[in-house]
Amino acid sequence: MPDLLAELRAARGACLSGKSLGERLGVSRAAVWKRIRALIQNGYLIESRHGKGYRLVREPDVLTREAVAPLLSAGLFRAGRYHHRVEVGSTNEEAVTLARAGVPEGTVVVAESQTRGRGRLGRQWLSPPGVNLSFSFVLRPRMSPNRTFQLTLLAGLALAETVQEAGFAEVTIKWPNDLLLRGRKLAGILTEMGAEMDQVHYVVVGVGLNVHMTTALFPPELQGIAIGLADVYTPSAGAVAVVPMPLRRDLLVGFLHRFETWHERYRQEGFAGVRERWLALAQIQGRRVEVNLLKEKFIGTALDMDPDGFLLVRREDDGSVSRVVAGDVALV
Ligand code: BTN
Question: In what order do the strands lie in the sheet with 328-331?
Fold first, then answer.
């Protein structure tokens, strides 16, 4: 059945008259107006121009099941596996609980806010209500536990592509999977796993992307090291934004589609294609880095990513090459 919203979306911001909409939908002009009013009440910005008709200017930036599920594919992240929460402790925690209870691969938990958002290495992750993207998803890969790290790299790659596609071409990846924008952290990924020695029960990948967050909203200690897309978007007075601010919904759906595509390719062809694309997006080869292995720190030059996904760094102190399998890497 044709629907009004689909017609307005398909017009891509052009005006559609009440008469033509009525004809397409098989209803009266009064009925069209009634539906337009309902959309406006639900947060859609629709311009009504006398003699010309209706134009969809902006959709509400909501992540509810109603808004997102119709845009999902029939594949890994299908509509029935999508869960939207207003507030949780941590979407990773929720997804781990669901995974332990046996939900299928492709289950996604998205939250408007987290009260105990978790970062890597025991850090905190800020998720104030309605501002950013915070979500986690469940995978059940048939692989040995020591290869699941590659899924995190795959998620970083899909996220970087999604953000670039939305118009933020400067975004790069920092090993293992932070997204950087103008040298500051835009997004992070936290992967958790339930496994035995040789069998993975589940992998939960948690993604945090700062969308509407701006520098002023970060606590002082993070200003200067964290950034949101809105920081880059914010146009100066009267100026037209260089990059239109994307909807969180479109970023989320874009990510899920991309991850799904890369995941399928990874399953069919292995890690080599992911590695190549990751290296192109990370632009890390030849860069001077500080590697923090928690027990020791050293400076070196990032040489390459090995075929398993670990970073190879030539140390400045003794010239040897270290394979970095954990910890943190900073560009210096
Ligand atoms: C990092 O330290 O870089 C990783 C940050 C990961 C944050 C995301 S937000 C959604 C998911 N739930 C969490 O508690 N953490 C991850």
Answer: 321-324, 311-315, 297-305, 288-292, 328-331
